[in-house]
Design a protein that fits this description.
It contains 16 helices and 44 strands. With 839 residues, the chain is an alpha+beta fold. It folds into five domains: 132 residues, Bulb-type lectin domain (Agglutinin, subunit A, Orthogonal Prism); 134 residues, Bulb-type lectin domain (Agglutinin, subunit A, Orthogonal Prism); 128 residues, Hepatocyte Growth Factor, CATH 3.50.4; 112 residues, Phosphorylase Kinase, domain 1; 233 residues, Transferase(Phosphotransferase) domain 1 (Transferase(Phosphotransferase), domain 1), CATH 1.10.510.10. A hairpin with a 4-residue loop joins strand 22 and strand 23. Helix 10 packs antiparallel against helix 15. The radius of gyration is 33 Å and the shape is flat.
């Protein structure tokens, strides 16, 4: 068709050209003075790291749109900056982001501006807004002078390279403010800001209540955030001058995608993207527990660290906004279901308000002390005072007026709580006294039960006297059958719950113990028998009727992670038998109780000795070398010689227990994973373990293998011979960890400086250097460079001293980034021991 004869085609072409001239081309990184952004158009940073345009948050069905920025290369859409976070638009087709009067402005349909950069008009030539590849959205003039940047106006995300600053001239803060909830980016209740006077960061609730403090900057980390010591991904910097004070960070590996977030949960979180699992990995978070966040559950909400969700309403209360709770926004708290009578006996059939007893509670702040001597007087005072909502009585009376905030349910093992008496309407409590007939019936039943009980006891005594030996044999057989029956039934109970598989039950030869027998063995879990508190509950010393001493691990948490640990312990250790692994004697499942029974280790854990100046003196060199060798043999059994191929994933000094002869035994298999016979590695979306012992490929990419355990072993070995923690501080300013410190001494040929001072009289020099060499080989960055445990044992056991020189360890900060060895670094242990002998 001849275009000259088709005017409609020419007209359409004209309008398309006009539109392209006024709007952005797909993939551009700039909004120029004569361009705009609307509809589905976006701009993309030059390197393709970030994208900016209209978006709808979360899974919201509402037509609320915002101008925001997200990662282009992350498959899970993650918003890092929002412009109009308080004023959404409903129609992106008629909403336009463009440059107007020297500002970047968002207009809605009626050309009303709803968001602007709020700059004074400038006449410095044409302006342009550019999305940079570090995530900074900037407005600049024709001479590239920066007029405005998103880095100075963050929302809830702090990107590498940006500043968290305090302007010493204007006295203004750059603050991170959480979203209101997962579907509303409006400013929430939690904010992170810098306190210039103390050089520390704080989290503030509702612009006024400070509830977390980082501690002051000491030159390397914030003193109350010890996790930063093991930070091998991020480089932190703090600067203070007459103009500003600010904190910034960068990545040692720029290819890692990472962000720092003020979350709706009231936590600050540092996360990195795991491409292998398509998920964000939480690197560290503060405060450490959810219930430490101020007023997280709102008025009359109760926080429980052992339950999900963490928040629930008190008895007689219901969520103020169920929709908000569904979006993890608990700030509105709970409201009463039934109004209080407030002393008016004419209401609710004349029934007065009553009190609900709440034991083991972390009590709210700001009680008002009342001068009354008895608990009944205290109760009466609160009952007759309409504004009183609760009271406590602990040798003195205190009442609470108005909303109750920061209530937390503590575990039975936590003795720091108290009993709170909550005022409720009478209808919320069952207070009808039992009738006389019911009382008489209960009395008859009680007397009858006592008579039957005494008769049964007498019968048992008589039978035992008649045939004691025969009866004992029958009891033993019956108990054995009873135990096997209950063991199988309780395993089947877990199978039915989906916690164990049928194939796991096969070959499970582990006795079941009833809860009552464990109570007897531990003195009803008395404090006198308490050995310590682990991550999943307290551990008690106990004694079986046979006289055998045991360690009883009582899992107090009922989270999914705790159940998974319990399953791992029951199934894995029951099938593992090695002199350097802790032996599991039995287990118990009754109601909410989940208990494990181990062999008792009288000398506690390895960290108790090596990190204590006094206790470490009892560990001479021969003993330490034997402990190292025993740990290595235990790991080799897990990796190669057991019926299952197991990766422990949480090897550390506190998980190495010592028996009465100081033989090491590896414990705590809650995080262990079984892999196939020929499988060398696996991937997880949730990185677990302990900072300082986790290998780099596991921490960064979620990849774990037998070489991950080798890395952890190397850290433990270096800790044993040095008496220093990996995450500790050392005299050298170039080292932030034991690995960096040891590597510096290795390259400087000052090997014996690493030795624990208590070993000077007993240490064998060539064995010490051999251990240092092996330790550094185990913590090399590349997993393929690390030896297997079979090779480690050959190196430890063997007479040869010609070991390979290690390459640069993982997580060494401050040294030259080259992995090549320095010219003065020893090439073999022969050379090192010769030089030591010449000193």
């Amino acid at each position: 068709m001849d275009n000259k004869k088709n005017p409609w085609l020419m007209l359409s072409f004209f309008f398309i050209c006009l539109s392209l001239n006024n709007h952005l081309s797909l993939g551009a990184d700039t909004i120029s003075a004569n361009q705009s952004l609307s509809g589905d158009q976006t701009i993309i940073s030059n390197g393709g790291n970030f994208e900016l345009g209209f978006f709808t948050p979360g899974n919201s069905s509402r037509s609320n749109y915002y101008i925001g920025m997200w990662y282009k290369k992350v498959s899970l859409k993650t918003i890092v900056w929002v412009a109009n976070r308080e004023t959404p638009v409903s129609d992106i087709g008629s909403s336009v982001l463009r440059i107007s009067d020297g500002n970047l402005v968002l207009f809605i349909e009626s050309q009303i501006p709803i968001w602007s950069t709020n700059l004074s008009p400038t006449s410095s030539g044409a302006l342009e807004a550019v999305l940079l590849d570090d995530g900074n959205f900037v407005l600049r003039d024709g001479s590239n002078k920066l007029l405005w940047q998103s880095f100075d106006n963050p929302t809830h995300t702090w990107l590498p390279g940006a500043k968290m600053a305090y302007n010493n001239r204007t006295k203004q803060n750059i603050r991170l403010i959480s979203w209101k909830n997962t579907e509303d980016p409006a400013p929430g209740l939690f904010a992170l800001e810098l306190q210039q006077i103390t050089s520390s960061y704080v989290i503030v609730y509702n612009k006024s209540q400070l509830y977390w403090n980082s501690g002051p900057w000491d030159g390397k980390i914030f003193s109350w955030v010890p996790e930063m010591r093991a930070n091998y991904i991020y480089k932190f910097s703090y600067v203070s001058n007459e103009n500003e004070s600010y904190f910034t960070y960068s990545l040692y590996d720029p290819s890692i995608i990472s962000r720092f977030v003020m979350d709706i949960s009231g936590h600050i979180q540092q996360l990195s993207w795991l491409e292998s699992t398509k998920q964000w990995n939480l690197f560290w978070s503060q405060p450490r527990t959810q219930c430490e966040v101020h007023a997280f559950c709102g008025p009359f909400g109760k926080c429980n660290q052992q339950s999900l969700p963490f928040c629930s309403c008190l008895k007689g209360f219901q969520a103020t906004s169920s929709n908000s709770w569904n979006l993890s926004d608990f700030s509105a708290g709970c409201a009463r279901k039934t109004s209080l009578q407030c002393g008016n006996d004419s209401l609710a059939n004349g029934k007065r308000d009553k009190f609900w007893e709440m034991p083991n509670m972390k009590l709210p702040q700001n009680p008002q002390t009342v001068a009354f001597g008895s608990s009944s007087e205290c109760e009466s005072t609160c009952l007759n005072y309409c504004s009183c909502t609760a009271y406590i009585y602990d040798n003195h009376c205190s009442i609470y007026v108005g909303d109750l905030l920061n209530l937390q349910q503590l575990t039975s093992a936590d003795t720091n709580g108290g009993t709170l008496y909550l005022k409720l309407a009478a209808s919320e409590l069952s207070d009808s006294p039992p009738s006389k007939k019911r009382m008489k019936l209960l009395l008859i039943i009680g007397i009858t039960s006592v008579i039957v009980l005494f008769a049964s006891i007498s019968m048992c005594i008589w039978q035992r006297k008649m045939s004691k030996r025969k009866e004992n044999r029958q009891i033993n057989k019956r108990n054995q059958a009873h135990r096997m029956l209950h063991g199988e039934s309780h395993v089947q109970e877990l199978i039915d719950l989906g916690e164990l598989k049928e194939e796991d039950e096969k070959g499970l030869d582990l006795p079941f113990y009833d809860l009552e027998s464990i109570r007897v063995a531990t003195g009803n879990f008395s404090d006198e028998n308490k050995l310590g508190q682990g991550g999943y509950g307290p551990v008690y010393k106990g004694k079986l009727p046979s006289g055998q001493e045991i360690a009883v691990k009582r899992l107090s948490r009922v989270s999914g992670q705790g159940l998974k640990e319990f399953k791992n312990e029951v199934l894995l250790i029951a099938k593992l038998q090695h002199r350097n692994l802790v032996r599991l004697h039995g287990y118990c499942i009754e109601g909410s109780e989940k208990i494990l029974l181990y062999e008792y280790m009288p000398n506690k854990s390895l960290d108790f000795f090596i990190f204590d100046q006094k206790q470490s003196m009892s560990l001479h060199w021969e003993m330490r070398f034997n402990i190292i060798l025993g740990i290595a043999r235990g790991i080799l059994y897990l990796h190669q010689d057991s019926r299952l191929r197991i990766i422990h994933r949480d090897l550390k000094t506190s998980n190495i227990l010592l028996d009465h002869k100081m033989n090491p035994k590896i414990s705590d298999f809650g995080l262990a994973r079984i892999v196939g016979d020929r499988q060398t590695e696996a991937i997880t979306s949730k990185v677990v373990g302990t900072h300082g012992y986790i290998s780099p490929e596991y921490a960064i990419d979620g990849i774990f293998s037998i070489k991950s355990d080798v890395f952890s072993f190397g850290v433990v070995l270096l800790e044993i011979i040095s008496g220093k923690r990996n995450t500790g501080f050392y005299k050298s300013e170039q080292a932030m960890s034991l690995l960096g410190y040891a590597w510096g001494l290795w390259t400087d040929n000052m090997l014996m400086d690493l030795m624990d001072e208590t070993l000077q009289d007993t240490c064998i020099a060539d064995q010490f250097v051999k251990c240092l060499n092996i330790g550094l080989l185990c913590v090399q960055s590349n997993p393929s460079d690390r030896p297997t445990m079979s090779i480690v044992i050959k190196m430890l056991d063997g007479e040869t001293v010609n070991l390979p020189a290690p390459k640069r360890p993982a997580f060494v900060i401050g040294r030259d980034q080259s992995s090549s060895t320095s010219s003065n670094k020893p090439e073999s242990i022969n050379e090192v021991t010769n030089s030591l002998g010449a000193r």
